[in-house]
Each structure stands twice: as structure tokens, then as C-alpha cells.
Amino acid sequence: MNELKTFSNPTEVARAAAQHWVSLNPKTVALSGGSTPRVLYELLADPAEPFRERIAWAKTHFFFTDERHVPPDHPDSNYRMVNEAMFSRVSLPAQNIHRIPSEEPVAQDASEKYEIDLRKSFGEAIPAFDLILLGLGEDGHTASLFPHSPALRETTRLVAAPWVEKLNAYRITMTLPVLNSGLSVVFLVTGASKAQILSEVIKTDKKSDLYPAQAIQPLNGELVWFVDQAAAAAQPTTPQTPKPSTTC
Ligand code: 6PG
């Protein structure tokens, strides 16, 4: 099932996504980075909100869809963002946090170490996360799968460390085999700056090399877009269901 859900603002998007999270009661979660999901993470950990007590933190294992090639205390670190917004505010066994070892001097080494962690945690099969959170870049990238990235063609490795020319940096990212094995894959997209790309990604036929977010087509799971009105502004007024992929 592919679904697009529109809410009035980023807080309402986060609230709906939090409701979705607790309704799934996921035991394995892959967290996205960037700025958009921070509101959700803060909401989940907020004792004044109804979500924190409904999450089995001690039974949930947290992974990351991608990471910047920086140490965990760096301002650009996705781990640091999630730790500040959520992990540090709830009681969670340290072994439940599967951080990408992005302090490794060589990004490829961090990627290989993370693949070992995934295979140790899920066995040899391609991990099927209960819940995967993703964002959408203004260029159509998701996780750290950027347009025309060789990582988009990865079919066996679970993690890759692509060089991203426009960022002049390496990134470490889960690959499509993992992202498309998720049971519930959720895009969080907010803000007017995403309106054009969201409409491109949803309405145009699959050009995933140009718009990697279009390559997210769960094989045995649901795909749900939680967006705000500003991001949905370029959508046709008639309710639109994201185009199912023509090729798997
Ligand atoms: C990252 C993310 C990336 C992000 C998009 C959207 O590490 O940056 O995983 O894929 O989701 O770039 O970023 P914003 O939420 O900041 O717009």
C-alpha cells in the first residue's frame, strides 16, 4: 500500500507519525537523520505526551538509515541529533542503540562494520525492519542515496559508503535491498522547500537514478508519506496515491 497523508504543520506530521509508530509497536527501527524527524524524536521522548509510555524502549533496537562521515559528537552527526532529541531522555539499554561507527577514518570501514552489526542483529537474511523512517532531500535523495549515486545499484551489500560530490564528503548509508525490505516505510516531509520535489517524486514515472526516493518501493511492506500542507502545496488537489513502481 502506498499512501500520502497530509497534515497542517510539522508538529501534526510528527504527532501522526508518533501515533503510527506506537500502533506498530516496532522492535526494530531504522531512524533517519536530517532536520525533519527531530520533532518526532522529541515528541516520542516527551513525558508530557502520550507516546513515551507506550513504547517498549528496552525491547526496541534502533539503527540509522545513514550517517555523515563525522564523529558522533560532531554538530552534523545524525546520531548526536537523535541522542539529544530522544535517546538521552529515555531509559534505553546501550546495546539497543546501533550507531554507525562514523568516526572511522575510512568511510568504507564504517560501512563494513555496520554491515557486520546488521548481519549479527538480523542473521544472514536481508534485514526486514519493522519500521524505517526516511526523509526527502530537495534533489530527490533519501537516506544518503543521492542522484546518480553508484550506491543505488548495490544489490548485495546492506550498507555503502558513497562519495557525494556535491557535499565533497563521504556518507554511510543503508542500501535499497534493506530499505525496500522494511515492513513499514515512512517518509516524513515538511516545508515549502520540498513542495516541488515531492510532486516530482510522486507524480512522475520512475526515474530513480534522478530521484532516488522513487526507488523506495517496499517489496512486502507499506509505504506511507507523512507530509505537511506546505510540502504538499504542489500536489494536484484531487487525492493522489503515489505511483506504484512500474518495474520492481
Ligand atoms: C541525512 C538524511 C537525509 C535527509 C534529507 C532531508 O543524513 O541528511 O538522512 O536523507 O533525510 O536530506 O533532510 P532534512 O530533513 O534536513 O530536510
Q: Report the end-to-end length measured between terminal Cα atoms.
A: 15 Å
Number of DSSP E strands? 10
- Helix content bin: 10-25%
Enumerate the distinct ligands: 6-phosphogluconic acid
The largest beta-sheet arranges its strands as: 1-10-9-5-2-3
- Poorly predicted regions are 240-248
Return Rg in Å: 17 Å
The biggest sheet, with number of strands, parallel, antiparallel or mixed sense and barrel status, is:
6 strands, parallel
Shape field: globular
Mean pLDDT across all residues, rounded? 94
Q: Keywords, please?
A:
alpha/beta, globular, six-stranded parallel β-sheet, binds 6-phosphogluconic acid, 24% helix, four-stranded antiparallel β-sheet, 248 residues
Structure overview:
It is a single chain. By secondary structure, the protein is α/β, with parallel strands linked by helices. The protein contains six helices and ten strands; from the N terminus they run βαβαββααββββαβαβ. It has helices at residues 10-24, 38-45, 78-85, 107-122, 176-179, 195-203; strands at 2-7, 28-31, 61-64, 66-68, 131-134, 159-160, 163-164, 169-174, 184-189, 222-228. The strands form two sheets. Strands 1-10-9-5-2-3 form a six-stranded parallel sheet, with helices on one face. Strands 4, 6, 7 and 8 form a four-stranded antiparallel sheet that branches. α1 crosses α2 (38-45). The radius of gyration is 17 Å and the shape is globular. Bound molecules: 6-phosphogluconic acid. Residues 32-36, 65-66, 78, 135-137, 141-144 line the site of 6-phosphogluconic acid.
